[in-house]
Amino acid sequence: MSDERYARQVILPEVGEAGQARLAEASVLIVGAGGLGTPVALYLAAMGVGRLGLVDGDEVDLSNLHRQVMYTTADVGRRKVDAAADRIAALNPEIVVERYGFRLEASNALATIQGYDLVVDGTDTFETRYLVNDACLLTGVPNVFASVSQFEGQASVFAYPDGPCYRCVFPTPPPEGSVLSCAEGGVLGVLPGMMGMIQAAEAARLLLGIGEPLVGRLLLVDAASMRFRTLDVERDADCPACGPSRRLRDLASFGADYDPTCAVPMSTPEITVRDLQEMNQNAVPPFVLDVRRPEEYAAANMGAELIPLDQLPARVGELEEHRGEQIVVHCRSGSRSARAVDYLRAQGFDAVNLKGGIRQWAAEIAPSLHVE
Fold first, then answer.
1. Is the pTM above the cut of 0.85?
2. Mean pLDDT on 156-177
3. Are residues 70 and 201 in the same domain?
4. Same domain, 179 and 226
């Protein structure tokens, strides 16, 4: 360990040589090497946290670069875990980086998290946040959480002894369509960096045993007005995951919560991307409608007709020539298109939802299609 590299940190009385040695022996798993995870990785590596795990199954896309400043234009198309590992090695070759080039799922979460001192949740879906929470509870590993959307961010520490878990504060996902992802609603480029540095600070305090971590507190950041406020959050005695009568015994206990398509109403008819691929071979293929925003369509599309969801009621007349045909509706992952299908069916159209949306199409049918 280089004395000069960490000199400005070691002189802090709260750190010292003993604290720096503690960091060198520590391990942190970062789930998501994106807007949140990359600043966390850079700062923890710079501070000397000895072992970092990076979980991400995506490749670097040009649309990432306005906020994921770990990557460069030359990294576009590379696996994020590879590009991030190279950048960390260039910053601090003393750090061991474990690469997990896959999406965290119920089938691999426990094995991936076990053996780490902390988990930093840099994911961008409610389904994966519930999965991280439950896996952390089952393994006894604290969870440093943050989220971002447009100009607003949140941060807290969950699954810490005597503190609340993510389900205590967010017992159920928000109403469908009420919270947009970064791809759907956008995000100010600097905001993930701000929240990622807060997560890195939380991780450092927990590893060093200093200060007052965000256990039992939810930090709210408004980057539009630059206001910070903190809400006290308590452990829910009736929480099904961490309360006295908890039902969480394994990840099968809440398996449906980890399904990215679980928000689609059961009454909405769906087809899979494999179904659509077969239907496209028919003499008369189905009419495919994309209900995403224009900027999403411009970044990646399947060649479908575009009518954004919020314009659909005013432009439904444009679909009259397709009345009687089957209309396959898609969005990014399936929730907005499900609402479009319900609306179109109420107008008498034969519409079905594409399960998993264009992200699933890219994953199974068109891997060259880069969808944020």
1. no
2. 86
3. yes
4. yes
Tell me the residue range of the domain where 321 lies. Answer: 270-364
256-280 burial string, b = 16+ CB within 10 Å, else e? ebbebbebbeeebebbebeebeeee
Give residue 246's pLDDT. Answer: 87
Q: Please check whether residue 36 lies inside any domain of the structure.
A: yes
Number of structural domains (the chain) is 2
Residue 119 pLDDT level (bands cut at 50, 70, 90): very high
**Are 359 and 245 part of one and the same domain?**
no
